[in-house]
Specification:
single chain, 612 residues, 7-stranded parallel β-sheet, 20 helices
């Protein structure tokens, strides 16, 4: 029988890679609605001729699976080359590349070094290429892709290394220039990150924050709302707050014993064994990692010498902890399990992006019953830890926290619901308070985008900076404006009656919200004000004010009710001298109005005005 070449051509032309990936996830019992939502909105942007935008989602929320599906959709749409850029870490590249290859994506993802051979042409066929963000690799990839026009750059952890930190000096950083060269005049840039503030305030590749794509977390995800809830609620996990001046080795040993007890309890109760890990994240200095390893080694050496006084002390401490957590009936079984499995542990130090001898895979997917990971900056971004059960986090909090850096350090986020009740975060009290505030500020900004309220306003204070100052495009960003504004609404003078009515300020704000809509006065802001208000006098609700008579000036747009320097003046604030939260409706005399919120205190509001 002769070969039916036309049939073969039809098979080769089939564009069903995206559906194949979705089917793979469905078969694995994974939720796909969050992925399809982000992928389709990204394609909508591309079809609308948008050449630079951001996909943002929570840390460890499944962005890699989303990027696999997005790549499949882009290949189905006919793009010749999809390049994935990753941080300059061999281990991270291998972790992500392996996940792509195991997904059965066609064409198979390749390390850029595999396609550099002159005999391999990228001008025909379709290609998925992985490349680290370093000057050497990017230069070589640029040379190979110089003549390829149909390409999409997906920049994982896009806010790291890619933004131009020399923007205010009229210069361009090497990585920013090389990524720009890779894009050329026709490439499409998609930045993917959990912390998009730096990309926004840097105007990286002129990304437009009004068309950013939200990647919502899946149903099994535990993140900010669990570990750093805005409202006071019963904790769903185990939070162990340390004194700010703490004895590191002592508290680390105690946290280690609690980890052993909880692993034993899980495996005894389920009847089958799983391996779990504990992350020790105390410093960015390599010398400190060896000091962190010593208490762990000492604990297992004590358990390994049953005739020594140290064994008696260790066993007694473990029994006491097991008794306090699970009662005396279970304590002996748990202690027996720990002692019987004392040799099934592994300590892995991750302290260098270029340490090729490190067992990175065993760290991220624990191969030993009791796995301990000690690390600094390399574990702070992009690394997914499966079966992470405990995190001992004591990074120095004496200095100002950079919001994007600390949000990325939340390695306890992820698919933790199956064992969330066992999870423990051990952390100094002040560091937790500051970390919590980082996420509250971050949530306020992102909720504004999710609600379709326009450009986000990034928030910092005397303890927390939004991003590295050098990365902020000062020509197009308003600093210290101190105001947040929300969606325009149709002005009705009767709203003043609500302000004049009785009741508390929070009650009035709720009534105003009902009157003007939750897009014009969002729920998340009211929750924030509620938990940060000392008393009713700290909230001021001003009477509506018209801007119709305002003089035309640079930065004033009466139709949009926007003003670069804001609307709240000193004389307005002095009417309520004890207030820290100020609300006022400004209307333009043409039927439109906007609610404006101002916080008085050591908080800086930062907004990109380039697209206003």
């Amino acid at each position: 029988m002769p070969i039916d070449f036309e049939r073969l051509r039809n098979i080769a032309a089939e564009n069903n890679r995206y559906e194949v990936q979705l089917s793979r996830l469905r078969d694995a019992g994974k939720q796909i609605s969050c992925i399809t939502d982000a992928v389709e909105k990204s394609l909508d942007n591309i079809e609308a001729k948008e050449r630079s935008f951001v996909i943002y989602g929570e840390p460890q929320s499944g962005k890699t699976e989303m990027m696999i599906c997005l790549t499949a959709r882009l290949v189905d749409s006919g793009f010749s080359v999809v390049v994935h850029l990753l941080n300059d870490s061999v281990q991270l590249l291998q972790q992500n590349l392996e996940r792509f290859q195991r997904s059965r994506l066609a064409p198979a993802a390749k390390n850029f070094a595999e396609v550099l051979d002159p005999d391999i042409s990228l001008r025909t066929g379709q290609h998925v290429i992985f490349c680290k963000k370093n000057t050497h690799d990017l230069k070589r990839l640029n040379e190979k892709l110089a003549t390829v026009k149909s390409k999409v750059i997906i920049d994982d952890e896009a806010d790291f290394a890619t933004p131009n930190s020399k923007i205010n000096r009229g210069e361009v950083t090497k990585i920013n220039k090389l990524v720009g060269d890779l894009l050329g005049s026709s490439g499409i840039y998609i930045g993917v990150t959990a912390t998009p503030a730096r990309l926004d305030l840097n105007n990286t590749f002129n990304n437009n924050n009004e068309i950013w794509v939200n990647f919502p977390p899946h149903q099994e995800y535990t993140g900010q709302d669990v570990f750093f809830p805005v409202a006071t609620q019963a904790s769903q996990y185990n939070l162990k707050l340390l004194p700010d001046a703490h004895d590191g080795p002592k508290y680390l040993r105690e946290a280690l014993y609690r980890f052993l007890v909880r692993v034993a309890s899980i495996n005894l109760s389920r009847g089958h064994e799983e391996n779990f890990s504990m992350l020790v994240h105390t410093s960015g200095k390599k010398i400190d990692h060896k000091a962190d390893k010593k208490p762990i080694d000492d604990a297992f050496q004590a358990l390994g010498d049953p005739h020594s006084p140290k064994f008696i002390k260790a066993a007694t401490e473990i029994k006491t902890i097991a008794d306090s957590l699970y009662g005396p009936e279970q304590a002996n079984r748990i202690l027996d399990y720990v002692v019987a499995n004392k040799d099934r542990y592994n300590v892995i130090i991750l302290n260098s992006e270029r340490d090729k001898n490190t067992d990175f895979k065993s760290a991220t997917n624990p191969s030993a019953l009791f796995t301990f990971i000690i690390g600094g900056n390399i574990v702070s971004r992009g690394v997914t830890f499966d079966n992470l059960l405990s995190m001992f986090f004591t990074r120095d909090s004496k200095h100002k926290l950079q919001q994007d850096t600390y949000i990325q350090r939340a390695r306890m986020f992820g698919s933790r619901k199956a064992y969330l009740q066992y999870f423990e975060l051990t952390i100094p009290n002040q560091l937790y308070v500051d970390w919590h505030k980082c996420f509250v500020f971050h949530k306020l900004a992102l909720e504004a985008i999710r609600a379709g309220l326009g450009s986000p306003v990034w928030i910092g204070d005397q303890r927390i900076s939004t991003v590295a100052p050098a990365s902020i495009d000062q020509a197009n960003v308003a600093l210290d404006r101190g105001e947040m504004s929300f969606r325009l609404f149709d002005y009705d003078p009767r709203v003043a009656n609500v302000i004049d009515s009785g009741g508390s300020s929070l009650t009035k704000l709720g009534e105003i919200q009902h009157f003007i809509g939750d897009k014009a006065l969002p729920d998340y802001l009211l929750r924030y004000v509620e938990i940060t208000s000392q008393d009713d006098q700290s909230i001021a609700i001003h009477q509506p004010a018209s801007i119709e008579g305002y003089k035309e000036a640079e930065g004033l747009d009466k139709s949009k009710i926007e003003r670069r320097r804001g609307f709240f003046g000193k004389s307005q604030r002095e009417k309520f001298p004890n207030a820290t939260h100020h609300f006022a409706i400004f209307h333009n005399g043409k039927g439109k109005a906007r609610m404006v919120y101002k916080f008085v205190g050591n908080i800086a509001f930062i907004k990109n005005l380039k697209h206003v």
